[in-house]
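lol forgot to send this yesterday, sorry. struct tokens for the thing we talked abt
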């Protein structure tokens, strides 16, 4: 364990020696833990980011220079475009068969907004079997492994608050049939809260006031956890990224994976065509030739409402947070070689004052630093955007009721099942509830190959198919 003087020398260049004001009151065990916490922070970067924030050096978007980003349509209009998509799908299949692709789920949240006091990934979302989000993803990976004759490693980023509960959930459920050695869980990183004078706050006498570093912290977490090294040992070069709240996601999409690789993209994204100007999706835009996402809350109303001559929204490509990312690009960003910087939020952060008393402020008193994953897009070579089918791939579970709720998600899962049956030439009564297990069905082709299962669907019934 470092001495107090060694820690003072370590913190002094960054004007953070105040953090040791209670050092002499701590037991050796608490000193050891606090020393490890202090040494784990890159104070040079944190203080520089906080200094920029205090000076107001945040992003300033020149909206007059924004133009809508182009995307690859799912409805090709020429033979060349159709051939391109077919070739990309075939290439993606080969990458999957070769074991070049892994899954990555960002799962650091709790189910608080759902009235559910547990990790969101454990929420029982399916209509008939009440399968959790994690189970649906696991079964999809199992089916894709079977489909392509490969091993698909699954990396899951938790948070400090739900890591242990998530690990226990997987253990209790025997990893839903997956081999545990192919499932790697690790916690998201944190950053200290900084006051307006640039001083880090204490949450307790032996603990920094820390907060999660955002989904953009994925890059650093993948590196620090050893996940990138694990990918390299396995020969995995591509990561399929999705968020834990979207059970409609196609975890392994050969078209998306193939296009990403064939175009030499560092980081590729799916786009939803916005239903209306005020839909809460970030906008894919070009700024000085670089791909950026501008949050819906930041876009001026005239740009939100602007339409092309054909009546379509000009800025209509929205981000549902689905990506395919190259392993080498993740390492490039995570090692600090790409100029990846955090966003700033001014928040009310409880802290311990000089007298050791807990203060709960009534107004924002601190800077919180948070990375956004999409801020890596301007740093990426040849970023690709591919349209996503909303009814096939997007029905997030965010709210207890209304839009983006468990009810709306279950309706979307049922509607997709009906659509896949229809594509296979099977007519299902409109009032039938159909739950398809991802263990057997991850696309319409899987349904078509087992048409005989669906021969006796009756009106008003509920059926589960494994």
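and heres what i got for the seq, position by position
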């Amino acid at each position: 364990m470092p001495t107090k003087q060694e820690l003072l020398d370590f913190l002094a260049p960054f004007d953070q020696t105040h953090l040791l004001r209670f050092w002499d009151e701590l037991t050796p065990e608490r000193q050891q833990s606090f020393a490890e916490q202090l040494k784990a922070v890159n104070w040079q970067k944190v203080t520089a980011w906080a200094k920029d924030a205090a000076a107001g050096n945040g992003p300033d978007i020149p909206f007059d220079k924004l133009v809508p980003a182009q995307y690859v349509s799912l409805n090709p209009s020429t033979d060349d475009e159709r051939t391109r998509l077919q070739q990309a799908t075939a290439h993606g299949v080969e990458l999957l068969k070769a074991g070049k692709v892994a899954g990555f789920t960002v799962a650091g949240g709790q189910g608080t907004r759902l009235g559910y006091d547990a990790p969101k990934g454990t929420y029982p979302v399916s209509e008939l079997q009440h399968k959790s989000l994690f189970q649906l993803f696991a079964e999809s990976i199992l089916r894709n492994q079977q489909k392509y004759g490969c091993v698909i490693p699954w990396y899951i980023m938790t948070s400090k608050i739900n890591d242990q509960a998530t690990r226990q959930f997987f253990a209790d459920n025997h990893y839903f049939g997956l081999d545990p050695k192919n499932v790697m869980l690790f916690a998201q990183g944190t950053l200290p809260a900084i006051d307006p004078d640039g001083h880090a706050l204490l949450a307790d006498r032996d603990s920094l006031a820390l907060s999660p570093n955002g989904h953009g912290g994925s890059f650093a977490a993948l590196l620090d956890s050893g996940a990138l090294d694990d990918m390299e040992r396995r020969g995995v070069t591509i990561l399929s990224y999705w968020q834990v709240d979207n059970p409609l996601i196609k975890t392994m999409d050969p078209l998306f994976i193939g296009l990403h690789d064939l175009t030499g993209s560092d980081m590729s994204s799916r786009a939803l065509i916005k239903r209306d100007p005020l839909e809460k999706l970030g906008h894919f835009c070009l700024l000085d030739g670089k791909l950026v996402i501008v949050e819906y809350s930041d876009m001026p109303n005239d740009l939100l409402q602007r339409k092309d001559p054909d009546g379509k929204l000009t800025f209509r490509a929205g981000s549902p947070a689905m990506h395919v990312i190259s392993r080498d690009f993740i390492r490039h960003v995570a090692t600090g070689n790409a100029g990846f910087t955090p966003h700033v939020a001014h928040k009310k952060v409880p802290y311990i004052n000089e007298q050791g008393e807990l203060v709960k402020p009534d107004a924002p008193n601190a800077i919180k630093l948070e990375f956004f994953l999409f801020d890596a897009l301007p740093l990426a070579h040849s970023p690709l955007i591919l349209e996503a089918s909303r009814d096939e791939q997007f029905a997030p579970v965010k709210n207890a009721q209304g839009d983006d709720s468990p009810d709306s998600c279950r309706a979307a899962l049922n509607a997709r099942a009906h659509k896949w049956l229809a594509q296979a030439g099977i007519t299902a009564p409109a009032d039938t509830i159909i739950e398809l297990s991802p263990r057997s069905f991850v696309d319409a082709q899987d349904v078509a190959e087992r048409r005989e299962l669906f021969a006796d669907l009756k009106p008003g019934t509920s059926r589960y198919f494994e």
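The chain has a mean pLDDT of 94. anyway ping me if u want another try
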